[in-house]
Design brief:
Helices cover about 55% and strands about 15% of the residues. The protein has about 475 residues and is α+β, with helices and mostly antiparallel strands. Among the domains are: about 170 residues; about 150 residues, Heat Shock Protein 90, CATH 3.30.565.10. A six-stranded antiparallel β-sheet has the order 2-1-6-5-4-3. A five-stranded mixed β-sheet has the order 8-10-11-13-12, covered by helices on one side. It has a two-stranded antiparallel ribbon with strand order 7-9. β5 and β6 form a beta hairpin. α2 packs antiparallel against α6. The chain is rod-shaped, with a radius of gyration of 52 Å. About 30% of the residues are buried.
Length: about 475
């Protein structure tokens, strides 16, 4: 069953950044408002407590000044006593007590402190402020069972505003005595503080709303950049990339991943285009030769000539089969498991494999290796290496030298193959033109796809392939980074 935490997490996951910013701003404003209310209640409670203490002190002073008169029984009080209580209360109310504020001062300044009294005897007229007895009273918990808060409406004590009074109601002898003190109204300092806090809350709310609008607009622009890049990539245009630094920080990881994905797609499409071009070229030549030989086979006069042409046509078809197998191997290589491959061991094995072929033409095949490890697909690296060695031996002159070497570097590993053949045209080395455009070196047939296959394998392993002039011959270098 989903608890409060799960519900909150689910709600947050469905909110946008702008909505969360607004929510935070609203909560901050509510928190400030709540603090104002709580502080105001605390201040009000303190003011009432002070007024209650003053009222209790007034009550004690009244009873002390009345003396024995305060404890007369109901059958002992006469009309004359009631008149005395009224005159006495008037004198006590306006007595020379310098600590009390007058009602006029209280009404003018809004501050509390003025005392109000009321006495009712069993006979005669009551004395003092009769509204204290008639007004609805609310007991104040914690200040005593006979301490109440009374709100006197406008015009009762002060014209134009109502007044809150804390009163003590007690029965002394036959007398009902009510003594009260006017409670301070919220002071100017408190009002200014409340105003400042309120304005601060409003400022926070406006800031949050502004930040939310800005964040929403920035995220929208950033997402538009990402979407535009993906839309153009879907149409085959990989020239546009979403910005990484000039973008919303929340989308920076997404932009980096989108860019890496687009780079990878562009690279794969480039491989596909280059491989398709080279595959079409490598297929076209043996197909044309095989077709020509089969046509000549029909016209051959002797059995020996027919046998030779059939064998050559079969070689052309087997070459097509090898090229197709290497194409499938390159395609499926992305799903193969990478492992640590010792290039020096791979070079030694390749040199040992081709030594008989080299010796038949008196070619010296040299392995100049140092321990060098690479994370890659062993079978693909083996195919690429054998392609290069096969080409180097095929186009080296009899009695020449082919050197295969591996070296560790500060940034990775390299392996090179140097021959003493006719060299290679730079355009051919880049795989950008057909063999008809290259007159410096015969067509590189090797294992089907030849050099483009090697270049694709090297790039799939994060490396680069370069071909330099050895004067004479060519030096093919593959560099891999760690």
């Amino acid at each position: 069953m989903t608890g409060p935490t799960g519900l909150l997490r689910g709600w947050l996951s469905r909110r946008t950044t702008a909505q969360l910013s607004v929510a935070v701003a609203v909560l901050a404003a509510l928190a400030l408002s709540g603090s104002v209310v709580i502080t105001g209640q605390a201040v009000r409670a303190d003011q009432r407590q002070k007024a209650a203490l003053s009222a209790l002190a007034d009550y004690a002073a009244m009873v002390d000044k009345l003396g024995v008169q305060a404890y007369l029984g109901a059958d002992q009080i006469t009309e004359a006593d009631a008149a005395y209580f009224s005159a006495w209360l008037t004198a006590f109310q306006s007595g020379p007590n310098r600590e009390d504020r007058t009602l006029e001062e209280v009404c003018r300044t809004g501050r509390g402190g003025a005392g109000v009294r009321f006495i009712r005897a069993p006979t005669g007229k009551p004395a003092g402020l009769a509204e204290l007895e008639e007004a609805r009273a609310r007991r104040l918990p914690g200040l005593g069972d006979d301490v109440y808060a009374v709100r006197l409406p406008s015009g009762t004590l002060c014209p134009g505003r109502d007044v809150e009074v804390v009163v003590v109601k007690r029965q002394t002898g036959a007398l009902s005595i009510i003594v009260g003190r006017v409670v301070d109204r919220a002071g100017e300092a408190w009002g200014r503080a409340a105003l400042i806090v309120g304005l601060s809350g409003l400022l926070i709310l406006i800031s949050g709303l502004t930040a939310a609008v800005f964040a929403r607009r920035r995220l929208g622009q950033a997402l538009a950049e990402v979407s535009a890049s993906l839309d153009r990539a879907a149409m085959g245009d990989f020239s546009r990339r979403p910005p990484v630094d000039d973008i919303a920080p929340e989308l920076r990881p997404l932009s980096l991943r989108v860019n890496r994905t687009l780079d990878r797609l562009e690279e794969l499409l480039g491989w596909l285009r280059d491989s398709s071009d080279q595959l079409a070229h490598d297929f076209r030549t043996p197909l044309a030769r095989a077709t020509a030989r089969l046509e000549r086979l029909e016209e051959a006069d002797t059995p020996g000539e027919r046998t030779r042409l059939a064998r050559l046509a079969g070689d052309d078809l087997r070459q097509l089969t090898r090229a197709m197998n290497e194409t499938l191997a390159l395609r499926d290589g992305s799903a193969w498991v990478f492992e640590t491959v010792q290039l020096d061991d791979l070079v030694r094995a390749t040199v040992e494999l081709y030594e008989p072929l080299a010796e038949a033409r008196d070619i010296r095949l040299v392995a100049d290796v140092e321990p060098a490890a690479l994370l890659g697909v062993r079978s693909l690296l083996q195919r690429a290496l054998t392609n290069l060695v096969d080409n180097a031996i095929k186009f080296s002159p009899d009695g020449g030298t082919v050197t295969v070497s591996t070296r560790p570097t500060d940034t990775g590993v390299t392996f090179t193959i140097a021959d003493q053949g006719p060299g290679m045209d730079p355009a051919r080395a880049r795989g950008a033109v057909d063999t008809e455009d290259s007159t410096d070196r015969p067509e590189v047939e090797s294992h089907g796809m030849g050099l483009p296959f090697v270049r694709a394998v090297v790039r799939r392993h994060g490396g680069t392939l370069t071909i330099d002039d050895a004067a004479p011959g060519a030096i093919v270098t593959a560099r891999f980074s760690r």
